[in-house]
Amino acid sequence: MSLRSYLKEEFANAKAQMSELEGYAKWQFLWDYYKLWIIGAVCLVGFLIYFPVARAMTPNDNWFYITIANTQADSGANSAIQKDFTAYSGYDPKEKNVYFNDNCYFDPADERYNAYYTYFVAYVDAGTLDLIAMERDDLELLGTRGRLLDLSRPEAAEIMEKYEDRLIYALPVDTEYSTEPVPIGIDLSDTVLVTKYHLYTDTCAVGLSANVPHMDAVLKFLAFATEDAQ
Fold it and tell me: Can you give the pTM of this predicted structure?
């Protein structure tokens, strides 16, 4: 028997049984016989309504985007550090996202890299990423690859002035760019990133994306991180 014939026969049997019932018994029969179909239909309608509405209500642009790499600390969406920085910055998450990504693991010393490194490069090249946080040794290695902003560039002048005593240097692999170490990061090992939020157990540093899109937000994050360490 084909599925179509089976369903047709089942519907005919149900219709015959229901014709013998009256009032509440008829509704009870409908529920008992078709409840899975009814629940499925309600869920489908709910999903069809929810997802377009949720998508429309979710901001597509970012105030700020940081990747906190190679950590087991809870530092992603709705984490304490994400909430605290959002409150500190005054950014309205209903207008744009304050994005903390703690799902990124790669070893900068391993030239084979992995999918996470590919995503990191894509976010840099697309002008999405503002900052990446890592342990200091890892950031120094990453800084040799040319994906972090040279902080001696004019657009980073304010950072150079404010955080001169925290600068981290790396010697670029590309000797055509420089044969001398260039500033590629800021050491935040003595800040709340370690002492309060425990992103790492020992050292912590941040580097700016080579195509950093939100310099003002980066300055706010650095102020947030170092406020109690000044």
Answer: 0.74
Could you give the count of Cα atoms lying within 13 Å of 89 in the half-sphere of its Cβ?
24
The number of CA neighbours under 13 Å toward the Cβ of 115 is 1
pLDDT tens by residue, the chain, 230 residues: 565 665 456 556 656 665 665 666 656 655 566 565 556 555 555 455 434 433 433 447 999 999 999 999 999 999 999 999 999 999 999 999 999 999 999 999 886 668 899 999 999 999 999 999 999 999 999 999 999 999 999 999 999 999 999 999 999 999 999 999 999 999 999 999 999 999 999 999 999 999 999 999 999 999 999 997 65
Question: What is the phi/psi pair of residue 93, to 5°?
Answer: -70, -10
Collapse the DSSP code of 120 into the 3-class scheme (helix H, G, I; strand E, B; otherwise coil) and give the result. Answer: helix
- Contact by Cβ (8 Å): 190, 226: no
Provide the β-strand partners of residue 99.
Answer: 65
Alpha-carbon distance of 185 to 228, in angstroms, equals 20
Residues composing the chain: 230
**Assigned token pair, 141:** 């290695």
Q: Are strands 205-208 and 182-187 parallel, antiparallel or unpaired?
A: antiparallel
Cβ-Cβ contacts under 8 Å for 188 (sequence gap 6 or more): 133, 166, 194, 204, 205, 206, 222, 225, 226
Residue type, 101: N
107: left (phi over 0), alpha (psi -120 to 50) or beta: beta
Residue where the block lists tokens 């840099």: 124
